[in-house]
Design a protein that fits this description.
Elements: H1 5-36, H2 44-66, H3 73-97, H4 103-127, E1 136-142, E2 145-154, H5 158-165, H6 171-174, E3 180-185, E4 192-196, E5 202-211, E6 215-220, E7 231-243, E8 246-257, H7 261-294
Antiparallel strand pairs: 1-2, 2-8, 3-4, 4-5, 5-6, 6-7, 7-8
Helix pairs in contact: 1-2, 1-4, 3-4, 5-7
Length: about 300
């Protein structure tokens, strides 16, 4: 599992610091301008408000990244780069244009730059400890649909992997977003099961693809009146095949979102890291059980 906890802590602290400064500039730019700038021009307050708005957007991005436990090393280092640019810009401002700032302005710019430098260094050090997760997962949107996939090799024979993947009641033991699974009827094509979410919400699924020992698929009844999520269509395919170390399984989820184009884009953007984290956790939990049963 990736060791991203430290990086996410510093991202969150950075987010809070950026939000605090951004809100202050946005709300009180008129009061702050003469404190920072020796002879503020008419548009100085407007410029500070623009900077404040930019900081609030930056804070939101940092917050969302801090909630993603599979945030990558490269993404964290992109934030480090942006923080480093802020520090460099502050140095250039003080060194070459310091006469436009008041004494208090120079002090404030210096202190903020020092705090940002602390975040940059801390995030860089924490990013170095992030490990790429073993499962290969991706989430993308194409042709108005959301595609989420994960692939995982496992040291277990195909038979055991297949048995674990088709143990429907035990699915709730490995899926973080599922609390209980009931098989309602049937076996193979046409099998129906009911899944329960962490808050008691539930939905029905029907098996619409079944190749024993290799693949099975399901379609979720999103048209039901009590279906709790904003999907117009949702289906999945789970497959296992032989691999050099034993077996390899992969999962593909395809979803069509409800709502307007804007709401679909917003939900897809917010859901991508959550989908990815759920699939990675599921693949790792499944692999643990498969390898235990293979011993």
């Amino acid at each position: 599992m990736p060791r991203s906890a430290a990086a996410r802590i510093f991202l969150k602290l950075n987010s809070q610091f950026s939000a605090l400064n951004g809100a202050a500039l946005l709300v009180a730019a008129g009061l702050i301008a003469p404190i920072l700038i020796a002879n503020p021009v008419n548009w100085a307050a407007l410029g500070l408000r623009g900077l404040g708005l930019g900081l609030l957007v930056f804070a939101l991005v940092l917050y969302l990244l801090s909630k993603n436990k599979f945030v990558s090393r490269s993404v964290v280092n992109e934030i480090v780069f942006l923080d480093a640019l802020w520090v460099l810009g502050s140095v250039v401002l003080i060194a070459f244009f310091g006469d436009i700032l008041t004494t208090n302005g120079i002090t404030v710019v210096t202190i903020v730059a020092m705090v940002v430098a602390f975040f940059a260094i801390s995030q860089f050090a924490a990013a170095a400890k992030i490990e790429k997760p073993v499962p290969e997962a991706s989430v993308e949107t194409r042709d108005g649909k959301l595609y989420a996939t994960v692939k995982r090799s496992v040291r277990a024979p195909k038979e055991i992997v297949w048995d674990v993947m088709t143990d429907h009641p035990a699915y709730a033991d490995v899926a973080d977003n599922i609390s209980k699974v009931e098989v309602l009827s049937g076996d193979g094509i046409g099998m129906m099961r009911r899944c329960y979410g962490p808050k008691g919400e539930s939905w029905e699924e029907t098996c619409d693809l079944f190749e024993p020992g290799h693949t099975y698929g399901f379609r979720i009844h999103t048209d039901a009146d009590d279906y709790p999520y904003p999907f117009a269509e949702l289906s999945g395919r789970w497959t296992v095949k032989e691999h050099s170390i034993g077996s390899e399984f992969d999962i593909e989820i395809v979803a069509t979102l409800k709502g307007s184009a804007a709401s679909k884009w917003l939900f897809a953007t917010m859901a991508k890291p959550q989908f990815k984290a759920i699939l990675i956790d599921l693949a790792d939990a499944w692999a643990d059980r498969m390898e235990r049963e293979a011993k």
